[in-house]
Design a protein that fits this description.
six-stranded mixed beta sheet; 7 helices; Jelly Rolls; about 30% strand; about 400 residues; about 20% helix; 21 strands; binds heme C; four-stranded antiparallel beta sheet
Length: about 400
């Protein structure tokens, strides 16, 4: 017995030593450096905005530019505030097209690298170069080329300070046949990005008496929005003869860290449209998509108690089968969280589809559902969607 015991403890000892050795070897081979792993993560996920002339307030193109910001970078990525894409993990649909969130491993690596003093690493190697993008380039240009049609708003000079400004105007984009929209991006030109809070566009059509009638919504833009891709097999129609009505909301002086506090001359907002070909537009098998605003509550005053929250909840039900392709809440400075659920009347059950619990008014994304778009079947007639929004006071 004694002998066996000794052998056993001897074995344990050697296993421990072996493990200890392995851990050490691993640590050395995984030393995190800018030139090793971190520069690549930053180049791929941050430089698109944090470059000269980009919308980020500082540049991350080289180690020397990154190094002074290392502690703040660690904080922002650990809190999931950067890259700016606050879609909650672990709730609802997680496969999104154009998802900017970092992998958990990338976040851990950045945090560990900063804890280690944010070293440069081997001076003779460097991270793969970033794809430098012209900040004024269309976001879908790499995949789809230049837009098939660009519709500019009228030009305005926005003073450096003053009250909010609104502009409603109608422009004629010259559409002669029904077109299916493949993608759309709204882009304030140059410095206009800092002052345009939102720029919505509707489609108007002339009725028989020559009066302009509202046909529907074309697209919606709010600060930080990248653009909308319409999924394959879906048609969002821009009808022949469509006129486009803009509704643009501007803050003189700008908002957030990108605010310049300066006059913006020649403020123009553009809609870039990419279309499918004519055959696609004639295919009746395509889902028809509309972009509609379903208010979750009659508009009225919201009372938010001091140091407190106010929740708003609302339902919308459909009398036909639908498919939800994306989730895009819209809110202003007091909005704090938003979620979307499906409500099944037969069982009273709700299913969470999407949630954002750390909302920022400077980033409005259309979170486009990936392979598992969410279908609400016809047999569940009366099935509704439920939206909950939380606002807070400061
Ligand atoms: C889509 C553009 C975009 C991307 C991508 C992006 N940023 Fe930012 N970043 C901004 C803008 C705009 C601001 C200033 C406004 C704000 O904080 O929202 C900012 C602010 C910051 C700040 C400063 C915050 C402060 O409080 O002063 C840090 C640090 C930062 N970003 C780090 C990163 C890192 C690290 C990445 C990549 C992992 C990244 N950002 C990706 C646009 C971006």
């Amino acid at each position: 017995m004694k002998t066996t015991g000794r052998i056993a403890s001897g074995l344990c000892f050697s296993i421990l030593t072996l493990l200890g050795f392995q851990v050490q070897a691993q640590d050395v081979s995984h030393e995190l450096t800018y030139n090793g792993q971190i520069g690549q993560i930053i180049n791929e996920n941050c430089v698109v905005c944090h470059q000269e002339g980009g919308i980020g307030p500082m540049q991350f193109q080289t180690y020397d530019q990154v190094r002074p910001w290392a502690p703040l970078i660690s904080f922002k990525v650990a809190n999931k505030e950067m890259p700016p894409y606050a879609y909650d993990e672990g709730i609802g649909i997680q496969h999104l097209i154009g998802d900017w969130r970092l992998e958990a491993e990338e976040i851990d690596q950045i945090v560990a690298w900063v804890e280690q003093g944010a070293p440069l690493g081997d001076p003779d190697s460097s991270p793969p170069p970033y794809q430098l993008k012209d900040p004024n380039e269309w976001n879908f240009a790499a995949e789809l080329g230049q837009p098939d049609l660009i519709v500019p708003s009228n030009s305005y000079d926005i003073p450096a300070s003053g009250n909010d400004l609104w502009s409603t105007e109608v422009v004629d984009p010259g559409i002669v046949a029904d077109r299916c929209i493949k993608a759309v991006q709204v882009k304030p030109r140059g410095d206009a990005a800092a002052v345009v809070h939102h720029a919505n566009s509707s489609v108007l059509l002339e009725d028989e008496e020559g009066e302009m009638e509202r046909y529907g919504m074309l697209t919606e833009y709010a600060m930080g929005k990248w653009g909308e891709m319409v999924p394959d097999g879906v048609c969002r129609t821009l009808p022949a003869g469509a006129k486009i009505q803009w509704s643009i909301h501007m803050f003189p002086g700008g908002v957030g860290a990108t605010a310049q506090g300066e006059m913006i001359e020649d403020n123009v907002v553009e809609i870039g449209l990419w279309f499918h070909d004519d055959e696609y537009a004639e295919d009746d098998n395509n889902y028809k998509q509309d972009l509609a605003l379903y208010r979750i509550e009659a508009q009225g005053d919201l009372v938010i108690p001091p140091n407190g929250y106010q929740m708003t909840q609302g339902f919308h039900s459909f009398d036909h089968p639908i498919r939800l392709d994306s989730f895009q809440p819209h809110g202003h400075l007091r909005m704090n969280a938003a979620s979307l659920e499906i409500f099944y009347p037969e069982t009273g059950r709700t299913e969470a589809i999407s949630q954002i619990s750390n909302w920022s008014a400077t980033w409005h994304h259309s979170h486009i559902y990936g392979s598992r778009s969410c279908t609400i079947n016809s047999s569940w007639s009366g099935t509704g969607i439920e939206a909950v929004v939380r606002q807070h006071s400061r």
